Amino acid sequence: IKMNLVGHDEYEVLFYADAVLDEDYFGEGVCQWKPENFGASFKATGRKEETEFNISDVMENLEKEKTLTKYYWKRGYPYYKNKDGLPYGSEDSPDVDFGEKSLTAYGAGPHNDNDFFSITVTLEKVKP
């Protein structure tokens, strides 16, 4: 799905949750279709070895809450490094950071907001 830049650090994605019609496709009753999950990954510049910052969840949760925010360590941007300063991931197997729904999930600290960045997904129904 194409992401369109619509503002500073803001993207828009249009998808059709009802793209597949409920029909009897195989003569065994009506199939009912509904997306179960959603997700997207972001990288600093898109290079293969960079960390993927993934935001995903069960679609039912997003439909209920209308928004999801996850928090990520800045130390993983653009990639996590080992003791030698080299990236953990490789071109063939980059690291994936799935984030946390709250900063408290990272432990007692000491942390401050400058140690993290966030990604927020907002679901909006578009009427034709």
- Class of secondary structure makeup: mainly beta
What is the count of DSSP helices, taking H or I runs of 4+ residues? 1
The radius of gyration over CA amounts to 18 Å
The beta-strand count equals 7
Overview of the molecule:
The chain is mainly β and 128 residues long. It has one domain (36-128). Helix content is 5%, strand content 28%. The protein is built from one helix and seven strands. The chain has one helix at residues 59-65; strands at residues 4-7, 10-12, 37-42, 52-58, 67-73, 96-97, 116-122. The strands form three sheets. A three-stranded mixed β-sheet has the order 3-4-6. The chain has a two-stranded antiparallel ribbon with strand order 1-2. Strands 5-7 form a two-stranded antiparallel sheet. The longest helix is centred in the middle third of the chain and has 7 residues, at 59-65. The radius of gyration is 18 Å and the shape is elongated. The model has no long low-confidence stretch (mean pLDDT 88).
